[in-house]
User: Fold SufE family protein from Pelagerythrobacter rhizovicinus.
Amino acid sequence: MRTLDDIREEYEFLEGDERYRLLIELGRELDPMPDALKTDATLVRGCSAAVWVYPTSDAGRLHFLADSNAAITKGIVALVIAAVQDKPADEVAAMDVTAALAPFDLKNQLSSNRTQGVPNMIALVKDHAARIAAG
Assistant:
């Protein structure tokens, strides 16, 4: 998975539809999420499309599997995941993920329907990080 800095660098050079294509591409690059993990427990509430996020950890580092039934939304969740993927849980728990995503200006780039679930995606990631960091 690309780093958030690499994605931002590419994103800044793109406009309009090209940014949509980049988000779709990011969604395609996510690790595959087995259908068995797409349950009510992994469903992110408040999203206009179905979004599933499954958190795992190894030696205190977080790793997430994610998927969506909508290509753009899958790209948005990939962007959220890119901000935290494989980082230490305590670092993610303390991180301002919203600020990390601010350069993408998603609220002005995408419709409110597409971005309404982003705070819930971030909350899920941070809650899981806090639980792992606390031991």
The mean pLDDT is 91. The radius of gyration is 14 Å.
